Amino acid sequence: MIDREQNLFVLDTNVLLHDPAALYRFHEHDIYLPMVVLEELDAAKKGFTEVARNARQASLFLDAIVGSADVGSIEAGLPITNFTEVHEDSRGYGRLFLQTHNFDGETEQTIPAPLPASKIDNNILGVALALQRTEDPRKVLLVSKDINLRIKARVLGITTDDYYDDKILDDIDLLYSGETPLPPNFQPSAENFLVNDETWYALVDKATPPSYPNECLYQEKTGFEALVSNVVEDRVELRVATNYRNSNKQVWGLTARNREQNFALNLLMDPRIEFVTLLGTAGTGKTLLTLAAGLQQTMDDRRYREIVMTRATIPVADDIGFLPGTEEEKMTPWMGALLDNLEVLTQVEVGGEWGRSATNDLLQKRIKIRSLNFMRGRTFLNRFVIIDEAQNLTPKQMKTLITRAGPGTKLVCLGNIAQIDSPYLTETSSGLTYVVDRFKSWNASGHIVLQRGERSALADYASEHL
C-alpha cells in the first residue's frame, strides 16, 4: 500500500552523475528511475573522469539496493536501505522503483506530441507524464540538473525542480566572510596580557559579536585590528594583529595596502594556522600576497622546504589541445599568474640582468608546479602548498587535495567564486565554498575575503563596471 503523502521523485541521469549518493537523499520519499537512465549510466561509466567515477559509484549503490530481488519485488518497490556512511542524515525510509514495462501496454514509450522520440530527455519526460496519470493523486516530481529539461517539463505541466542537496548554502551571501566589525563602544582594554610576546585581550562583554577561531575583528573609529585566538563559552580571547602596512614589517618586499590585505598576511605568516582560504575578485592581491608569504617563510625563515603550486586546468575559451613536455612544462601555460607575480617579487635592484637571472634560477628550484591529476596518494611534508583557482574544484577534489597535507605543511586556497569556469559547479556548490564553510570552526584555519582591488585603476574599474 503506497502512502499518498510520500512524493515520487523521478531522477534524471545528471543527478546521479553529479551525486551518486542522491539515492539516499530523499528520506521517506520514493524514487523512480526510467530505464533510459540506467542506459545513460552505463554509457558514462567508461574513463577516469569524475563523471565516470560517479557513474560507476551510482551503479554500485543501485546494485546494493537491487541485490538478488526478483521481478515482483522490483515492481513493488525496493526498500532503500540506510547507508549511514553515505550521509549522516540519511534515513532510508523510501523505496526505489525501476521501470519494468511500457505504460498503457504500448510498444513504445508515450512521448509528448511536440517532442521527437529519439531524444533520451524526452523519454524521461514521457515517463514523468505517464506517472502523473497512473499515480494520481500522488505527487510526482522530476528532479534534474538540466535547465532546458526543467523548462520543457514545466511547459508540459510536469512538476520539476533542481537537485539542491549538493548546495552548501542556500544563498552565497550567507558565506562566512572572515571579518567582523566591532561595536563602536568597544574598548580594547579589558584584561590584557602577553602570550609569546603578543598582546592578547580577554573579552567577557556579551555585546561582543559571536566569533570563530582566527576570525578578523576590527574597529573603524580607532583602527584597532585583532584576530580571535580562543573562544570558550562567553569569553573571547583576541591577539592584536601585526601591522604589515609598516615598512619595517615587509613580507618579501611587500606591505599591505588595506585592512583585508593586512589580515591576509597575518593569516599567511602565522605558523599556527595550517589552512587558509583567500577569496576576492581579480586584482585584490590573493596570489601576490600568498606567494610573498610563501617565499618569505621558505627562503628566509626556512619554515618550509619548498612551495608547491597547483590549479584546476579549465580553459576560459576553447582548449588549445595537447601540450608537450614534462608535468611541470605542461602546467606552465596554466601558471601565468605565478610567473607574473614572481616578476613583481624578483625585481632585483642590484646586479642587473645577471642578478635577476640568478634570482629566478634560485627561486625555480624552490617552487614546484604540480598537476591535480597526479595528487592522489601523495603526502606533502613541510611544504607551503598553494591551490589557485580553487573555485573550479568540486568538494571531492578539495578533500583529495587537503588530505595530502602532512606534518609541517601549510595549505592555502585562492579563488573567486564569482568566476567559476566549470560547467558543473555554481557558487553554492563549489569546493571552495564547501571548505570555507566546513573549516570556519577549526582552530588552525583562517579565512578572509579581499574586497579592494590594488592592481591598477583600469583593473578596478573593469571589475566594478563590466
Overview of the structural elements:
This protein is of the alpha/beta class and 466 residues long. It contains 14 helices and 18 strands. The strands form three sheets. A six-stranded mixed beta sheet has the order 3-4-2-1-5-6. The protein has a six-stranded mixed beta sheet with strand order 7-10-11-12-9-8, with helices on one face. The chain starts with 7 loop residues before the first strand and ends with a helix. About 2% of the residues have low confidence.
Helix-residue proportion: 25-40%
Cα-atom radius of gyration: 27 Å
Per DSSP, the total helix count is 14
Low-confidence stretches: 84-92
Global shape = elongated
Structural class: alpha/beta
The total strand number stands at 18
Strand residue percentage: 15-25%
Strand order of the largest sheet: 3-4-2-1-5-6
Mean pLDDT: 82
- Taking the alpha carbons of the first and last residues, their distance comes to 58 Å
Largest sheet: 6 strands, mixed
Descriptive terms for the model:
six-stranded mixed sheet; 18 strands; alpha/beta; elongated; 14 helices; 466 residues
Summarize the structure.
The chain is α/β, with parallel strands linked by helices and 466 residues long.
Q: What topology does this entry show?
A:
Elements: E1 8-11, H1 13-18, E2 30-33, H2 35-44, H3 50-66, H4 71-76, E3 78-79, E4 95-98, H5 120-134, E5 140-143, H6 147-155, E6 160-161, E7 179-181, E8 192-195, E9 198-203, E10 216-219, E11 224-232, E12 235-240, H7 259-269, E13 275-280, H8 286-300, E14 306-311, H9 327-331, H10 336-345, H11 352-366, E15 367-369, E16 383-388, H12 395-402, E17 410-415, H13 431-439, E18 445-450, H14 457-465
Parallel strand pairs: 1-2, 1-5, 2-4, 5-6, 7-10, 13-17, 13-18, 14-15, 14-16, 16-17
Antiparallel strand pairs: 3-4, 8-9, 9-12, 10-11, 11-12
